[in-house]
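Input/output pair, single chain:
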Amino acid sequence: MIIFDGEYEWDGNKNDGFKPVSWWPGACRLTIIDISEKNPGIHILRPVIVLASKLQEGFSVKNRYQDLVRRICLDFKLDMKKVLWIGYNPNIPKEMEAAVFEHVTSIGSEELYSIRWRPVRSNEFEAVKQYL
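Output:
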């Protein structure tokens, strides 16, 4: 089931008490998919897949990924640990990369992570290719 499929925008302002994705306005192409309904009776560790790609030249989704992830989780009420996060270039979809988050520390209520990128596995690509 598709939860969201379209342009995800931010204005660069701190309007709601939370840090924006970036301090400058921007947007990315975003598709959020819940695959749990497609597989009833099977416990899926990461039942939601988020596909994110850049829309404009010069802006890289990967440069602000930690802030983008926080904002998406807040806006769509997602548990970051139950989501497969994939970044890709729409011109070269086979070169998708999955984000691997490692908890580094906490500052107050804010969790900080390091992000490592790995190529998507063949089964992950098969699960998302119809949504590209």
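The first strand starts at residue 2 and ends at 10. The CA atoms of residues 69 and 75 lie 10 Å apart.
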